[in-house]
């Protein structure tokens, strides 16, 4: 059973609350905010639209006509008591394998990141492919899988001038985080590679194949092999 | 089932609804009508459920042709509405005869207008909403010649006394201004801005032309974050005010990415988000501090106003036989048998 968590709840306008877990243990906080989001989603609380859990916080959105910040705060505290009692039952994670072409036009910021970390580009790739990532949350844009970054000595600065368009499949790092872009969008993260797999399929629900808690590994492929994956979807390994 | 609406001049229009409330949990913005009050009012005036698909027009002139008799309602920013060349009132139900053209021209003072059609349209949905999502690439594209399938034909409602308005429903229309006052509550990270946070209330801000459904960019005196520590990505509410650059204030609207790593200085109230949706580039904005309790009360007052309108419309349309047609016929004794 997890230790009871310390929660801070902040007003975030008249239609949202930000709930932050502060146990001092990043994994425990992550488990707490995702369990809380799950509880709120399944409890069907009147007026609560849904919850957006990320690393250590969850944004709870509601309709202030049907409920209020005060009532939602009470529901959150009730949820925490139930979760502390029941524990955070986690499902078995699925695994995803992501082929990536690094550098060149596929990863225009690879050399910048290498220089900034004091690495060769090969070392950056080795660190990026040398770790099993846990998908921490689905973020912007379009359900991006947000993960703790590779084992780099320094946080990676965001671009000073964000790009107006980053292609779908772009594999990026910033700060202590890593991500894949499911759709074309503007972006300020450092793009070090690109996967030929299609991550987002707007024709099906869910739009993306993973959920928070699933695991993911990157694997380097040759530029010549990029096209051989054309049209393939990112799927969980059997 | 019925003949479609034909788009003659799309201007800058989309088919939308009140938004994809299930989206944020999956990393998709809520999107949907930016001025929720006007969108709800249009649907209510057209005898529809509040969340029915409707047209949102932004800034530009728009024309469409009915190929069957329809009942419509136009709300939002002030504009010139004509149906078959006749000038018609905004914020009232309006009959359109088959073959007539509905034209919206000269949207002014505000930015967005809404056209609801009784019975609404048949359009594709994603996670329960037809609202376009430009990032995912979802949404119906309206072009010249696009046919929107309508679901219900409504025979023209005639007013025997020529010259008198057909309806006079007494809805308090929202005020539109080129100098709107926007209510905000303190954001969860207001303390990180130290004393500079007060600049938000002592300065005026000008809406940049780079503003859109994702966010409004405002020029003016900028509060500055006093910390330099990194912020982990987290969910940000619609209405969040951030200072991502040294040039502009960013106010996130319904198309906002659901997660971001910038501290939230303040949050625009639900009611003022509708006002912001009507702010045009060049308009001057003043922020006013309020509390969550007061913001909730203001939002509820607007909802109650819409509830009153809904019940008036249900009574009027019931008497006119609109919307309850089939049940009425079932209850009537068969005539002439």
From TrEMBL, chain A:
The keyword ATP-binding applies. It comes from the Bacteria. Keywords: ATP-binding, Hydrolase, Nucleotide-binding. GO terms for molecular function: ATP binding; hydrolase activity. Pfam families: CT_C_D. Residues 7-210 form the Carboxyltransferase domain. InterPro entries: CT_C_D, Cyclophilin-like_dom_sf, PxpB. SMART domains: AHS1. This is Allophanate hydrolase.
UniProtKB/TrEMBL annotation, chain B:
Pfam families: CT_A_B. Gene3D superfamilies: Cyclophilin-like. Signal peptide: none annotated. Residues 25-303 form the Carboxyltransferase domain. It comes from the Bacteria. Keywords: ATP-binding, Hydrolase, Nucleotide-binding. SMART domains: AHS2 (SM00797). InterPro entries: CT_A_B, Cyclophilin-like_dom_sf, PxpC. GO terms for molecular function: ATP binding; hydrolase activity. This is Allophanate hydrolase. It comes from Pseudarthrobacter enclensis. The lineage of its organism: Bacteria, Bacillati, Actinomycetota, Actinomycetes, Micrococcales.
């Amino acid at each position: 059973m997890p230790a009871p968590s310390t929660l801070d709840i902040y007003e975030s306008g008249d239609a949202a609350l930000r709930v932050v877990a502060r146990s001092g243990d990043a994994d425990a906080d992550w488990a707490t905010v995702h369990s809380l989001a799950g509880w709120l989603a399944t409890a069907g609380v009147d007026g609560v639209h849904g919850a957006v859990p990320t690393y250590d916080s969850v944004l709870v959105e509601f309709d202030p006509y049907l409920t209020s910040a005060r009532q939602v705060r009470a529901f959150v505290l009730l949820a925490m008591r139930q979760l502390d009692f029941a524990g955070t039952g986690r499902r078995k994670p699925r695994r995803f394998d992501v082929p990536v072409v690094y550098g060149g036009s596929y990863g225009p910021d690879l050399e910048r990141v290498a220089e900034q970390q004091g690495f060769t580009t090969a070392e950056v790739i080795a660190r990026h492919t040398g770790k099993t990532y846990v998908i921490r949350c689905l973020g912007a844009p379009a359900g991006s899988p947000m993960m703790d970054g590779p084992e780099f000595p320094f946080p990676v600065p965001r671009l000073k001038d964000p790009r107006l368009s980053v292609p779908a499949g772009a594999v990026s790092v910033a700060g202590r985080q890593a991500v894949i872009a499911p759709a074309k969008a503007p972006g300020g993260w450092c793009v070090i590679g690109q996967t030929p797999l299609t991550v987002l399929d707007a024709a099906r629900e869910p739009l993306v194949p993973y959920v928070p808690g699933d695991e993911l590994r990157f694997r380097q492929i040759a530029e010549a092999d990029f096209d051989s994956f054309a049209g393939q979807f990112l799927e969980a390994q059997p | 089932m019925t003949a479609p609406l034909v788009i003659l001049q799309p201007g800058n229009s989309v088919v939308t609804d009140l938004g994809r409330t299930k989206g944020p949990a999956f990393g998709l913005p809520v999107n949907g009508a930016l001025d929720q009050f006007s969108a709800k009012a249009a649907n209510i005036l057209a005898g529809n459920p509040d969340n029915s698909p409707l047209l949102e027009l932004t800034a530009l002139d728009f024309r469409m042709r009915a190929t069957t008799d329809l009942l419509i309602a136009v709300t939002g920013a002030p504009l010139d509405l004509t149906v078959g060349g006749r000038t018609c009132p905004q914020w009232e139900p309006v009959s359109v005869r088959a073959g007539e053209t509905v034209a919206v021209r000269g949207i002014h003072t505000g930015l967005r207008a809404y056209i609801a059609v009784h019975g609404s349209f048949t359009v594709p949905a994603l996670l329960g909403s037809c609202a376009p999502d430009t990032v995912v690439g979802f949404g119906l594209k309206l072009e010249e010649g696009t046919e929107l399938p309508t679901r219900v034909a409504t025979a023209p409602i005639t007013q025997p006394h020529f010259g008198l308005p057909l309806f006079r429903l007494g809805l308090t229309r929202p005020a539109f201004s080129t100098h709107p006052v926007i209510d905000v509550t303190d954001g969860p990270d207001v303390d990180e801005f130290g004393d500079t946070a007060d600049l938000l209330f002592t300065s005026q801000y000008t809406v940049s032309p780079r503003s859109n459904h994702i966010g409004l960019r405002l020029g003016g005196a900028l509060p500055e974050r006093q910390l330099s520590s990194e912020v982990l990505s987290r969910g940000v509410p619609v209405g969040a005010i951030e200072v991502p650059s040294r040039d502009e204030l960013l106010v996130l609207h319904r198309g906002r990415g659901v997660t971001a790593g910038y501290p939230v200085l303040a949050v625009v109230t639900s009611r003022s988000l509708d006002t912001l949706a009507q702010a045009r580039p060049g308009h001057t904005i003043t922020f006013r501090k309020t509390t969550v309790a007061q913001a909730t009360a203001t939002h509820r007052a607007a909802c109650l106003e819409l509830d009153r309108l809904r019940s008036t419309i249900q009574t009027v349309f019931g008497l006119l036989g609109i919307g309850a047609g089939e049940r009425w016929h079932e209850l009537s004794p068969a005539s002439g048998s």
